[in-house]
Design a protein that fits this description.
Elements: H1 9-15, H2 18-24, E1 44-48, E2 54-57, E3 61-62, E4 70-71, E5 80-85, E6 92-97, E7 103-108, E8 118-121, E9 126-130
Antiparallel strand pairs: 1-2, 1-9, 3-4, 4-8, 5-6, 6-7, 7-8
Length: 134
């Protein structure tokens, strides 16, 4: 069971840089190829940019050609909450941090093996720590 982080939007606004707040707390997105992690190739762990929950291992990261960091799987499925997003005249599956509820990106069923999934995540939703992957 993941212990929830409950903060007011004012507390999040004080904690997060403006651009990160727009994505993590307001469901925004960054332009493709603009984020600092879309082309990151180092070994390490990607964490939620708001509450620092570990989310993705670099061994699951791949170049999807979309311009956003893409992963085939979470470290553990319970680390994210998935919900239907029908904004922008599309039906997509939104990926939110299971601990703080922050918006991370979307997941699509068009990724490579072994999962067939593409977690398309905003760089501004993540923090990366170089080092040994899991």
């Amino acid at each position: 069971m993941i212990e929830k982080v409950n903060k007011s939007e004012e507390e999040w606004k004080e904690q997060l840089p403006e651009a990160s707040f727009r994505i993590l707390r307001e469901g925004g997105t960054e332009a493709p190829y603009s984020g600092k992690y879309w082309d990151e190739k180092a070994e390490g762990i990607y964490y939620c940019g708001a509450c620092h929950l570990e989310l993705f291992d670099s061994t699951t990261k791949y170049d999807s050609g979309t311009g956003w960091p893409s992963f085939t799987a979470l470290i553990r499925p319970e680390l994210a909450e998935l919900k239907t997003d029908s904004s922008h005249n599309m039906i997509r599956t939104e990926v939110n941090c299971a601990r703080c509820g922050s918006h991370l990106g979307h997941v699509f069923p068009d990724g490579p093996n072994p999962t067939g999934m593409r977690f398309c995540i905003n760089s501004l939703s993540l923090e990366f720590e170089r080092g040994t992957s899991k």
